[in-house]
Design a protein that fits this description.
It is a single chain. The protein has about 400 residues and is of the alpha/beta class. The chain folds into 2 domains: about 220 residues, Rossmann fold (3-Layer(aba) Sandwich); about 160 residues, Rossmann fold (3-Layer(aba) Sandwich). About 45% of the residues lie in helices and about 15% in strands. The strands form 2 sheets. Strands 3-2-1-4-5-6-7 form a 7-stranded parallel β-sheet, sandwiched between helices. Strands 10-9-8-11-12-13 form a 6-stranded parallel β-sheet, sandwiched between helices. It is globular.
């Protein structure tokens, strides 16, 4: 039996894949602990999860929607990733000392995990929850890369005593990537990357849902913009509800911000939805091209309409289109007629579903949570063998 510590940022889309892998490790008899935001982890990993609480910066800013390109990258590193790493460091250090893990699994955006694991001489694996950063995105921008390197050097000096040299986003012990070539495409990947497909597992849920509202004789579309796009998504969700007026299809819209008012009778609005169970009951998904939502949709062999907003979403949307599994809309120009036409096309043109089913087959073949757990077990065995010698 081995001990695994998962270090994750306070972001739902980054925690959920780790929950699937952690559940598989637990089922195999291993011990699992978490370092991160305690309330979020108890919500997503379950109230019985062993959680070492990590602080979050009190004034962690939300990135303005208008930031693009280099300005967005500067915000990500200077205003989010580095302050988060500084804040999480004491909690992660306490977890390493108290739990004594054999392997650390560190999310790409939880930089502290990799830095402190390396400084402690522990094997660690990167959890890459989006395919947008499986290769170094700064390789073609040397000056930006130097700037990011200086930020990492400063962070390493502050929290790890200057020990270590590895990039905390790309562990030399391995990178778990929750996708496959059928979606990712022909990108040239380092040999350390393991394409394991989506890591889906049982997720605790207290979300009520009126399952009787669904009509098996009428196609239903799930609409979600994730949990971080409430302000930017108000107009888009309103246009989506309008697009379904008079349509034979139905829509279930996730509206965590409560931005929608009156909607047509064939539209159901809920603040939260049980996404995984619902995906087995709908016919298509309209979303922002968040990597988790896209992969969970394709796991079920469902076509997509994607309207990326920011960050890695345009890259993921391009992958969906290249795979033939969906249609891309321009978020800022997606009015009701455009949304309605795209939804109707993916519902009525069988080529989109066939392509989605082909990606689904690759996902299932890749192994998901069991495959990821297998890689981690092997690393733990090597670590335990080294400790015995």
């Amino acid at each position: 039996m081995a001990r695994f510590l998962f270090v994750v940022p306070p972001l739902v889309g980054h925690v959920n894949p780790a929950v699937g892998v952690a559940g598989e490790l637990t089922a195999r008899g291993h011990e699992v602990a978490w370092a991160g935001h305690d309330e979020l982890l108890w919500q997503l990993a379950g109230p019985e999860a062993l959680v070492f609480s990590c602080a979050v910066p009190r004034d962690l800013p939300v990135r303005p929607a208008e930031l693009k390109g280099p300005a967005a990258l500067r915000f990500l590193w200077q205003d989010f990733l580095v302050p988060l790493a500084d804040a999480m460091a004491p909690g992660v250090a306490a977890a390493l000392e108290a739990f004594e893990p054999h392997v650390v699994v560190a999310d790409q955006q939880a930089l502290t995990g990799g830095l402190l694991a390396e400084a402690a001489g522990l094997p660690w694996v990167t959890s890459a929850t989006t395919s947008a950063e499986l290769v170094d995105p700064l390789a073609a921008m040397p000056k930006v890369g130097e700037w990011v390197g200086s930020l990492l050097d400063g962070l390493r000096a502050r929290i790890a005593g200057g020990r270590g040299t590895a990039d905390p986003r790309f562990s030399p012990h391995g990178v778990l990537a929750f996708t496959t070539r059928e979606l990712l495409g022909p990108a040239d990947l380092p040999p350390s990357v393991r394409l394991v497909g989506p890591a889906l597992g049982a997720r605790p849920s207290t979300t009520d849902f009126p399952w009787e509202w669904l009509d098996p004789l009428r196609p239903t579309v799930l609409v979600s913009l994730g949990t971080a796009n409430t302000a930017a998504g108000a107009g888009f969700l309103a246009a989506t509800a309008e697009a379904f007026a008079g349509s034979p299809a139905r829509a279930v819209i996730a509206d965590p911000g409560g931005v929608l008012g009156e909607v047509p009778p064939n539209v159901l609005v809920r603040p939260r939805v049980p996404q995984l169970p619902l995906l087995s009951r709908v016919d298509a998904v309209l979303c922002h091209a968040g990597h988790n939502t896209v992969c969970e949709t394709l796991w079920h062999g469902l076509p997509l309409v994607v309207a990326p907003i920011r960050d890695d979403q345009p890259i993921v949307a391009a992958q969906v289109v290249a795979a033939g599994a969906g249609i891309r809309l321009r978020f800022g120009r997606a009015d009701a007629p455009r949304i309605g036409a795209a939804v109707e096309e993916v519902l009525t043109e069988p080529a989109y579903r066939r392509a989605a089913e082909a990606v689904a087959a690759s996902f299932h073949a890749a192994g998901g949570s069991p495959a990821a757990a297998g890689h981690l077990e092997q690393l733990a065995l090597e670590s335990l063998a080294h400790l015995r010698t």
